[in-house]
Design goal:
By secondary structure, the chain is an all-alpha fold. It has a domain at 5-78: Histone, subunit A, CATH 1.10.20.10. Helices cover 64% and strands 0% of the residues. The chain has four helices and no strands. The protein is extended. Keywords: Nucleus. This is DNA polymerase epsilon subunit 3. It comes from Aedes aegypti (Yellowfever mosquito). One of its GO terms (cellular component) is epsilon DNA polymerase complex.
Length: 120
C-alpha cells in the first residue's frame, strides 16, 4: 500500500491555504501547527474513507459514492457536516452541468470547415 506514513499526508500547501482562509489575516501559523494539522486532516480523510467503505460494503457495493461518504459522516458522528456538504455538492453539480451545457452549445454553433478552408 504505502511505503512511508508521510506519503499519506495531504500537501502542506493545500492545508496551509485552507488554514489561512479560516484564520483572520493577522494570525500567523507556526510550522509545528501546520505539520500537526496536515497530519490531522490526513487521518480524518482516512477515517472517513474507512467509514464510507464500510457503508458501501454493507450495501454490497464496490464503488464508493457520495451516499457512502454521507453515511460515513453520520457513522463517525460528523452529522453537522452533512447538510453543508449536500449544498456544496448541489452547487458543484450545477456548475458542472452549466459547463457541459455551454460546451454543447458552443459545439452546435460552430460551422464545420469545408475542404480547402484554413484556420487563421
Amino acid at each position: 500500500m504505502v511505503e512511508r506514513i508521510e506519503d499519506l499526508n495531504l500537501p502542506n500547501s493545500v492545508v496551509t491555504r485552507l488554514m489561512k482562509e479560516a484564520l483572520p489575516c493577522d494570525v500567523k501559523i507556526a510550522s509545528e501547527s501546520r505539520t500537526a494539522l496536515t497530519r490531522a486532516t490526513s487521518v480524518f480523510v482516512l477515517y472517513l474513507t474507512s467509514a464510507a467503505t464500510a457503508a458501501a460494503e454493507k450495501r454490497k457495493q464496490k464503488v464508493l459514492t457520495v451516499d457512502h461518504v454521507l453515511a460515513g459522516l453520520e457513522e463517525i458522528e460528523f452529522d453537522s457536516f452533512i447538510e453543508p456538504l449536500k449544498k456544496d455538492l448541489e452547487t458543484y453539480r450545477k456548475t458542472m452541468k452549466n459547463k457541459k451545457d455551454k460546451k454543447g452549445d458552443k459545439a452546435e454553433h460552430e460551422e464545420p470547415m469545408e475542404e480547402g478552408d484554413e484556420e487563421d
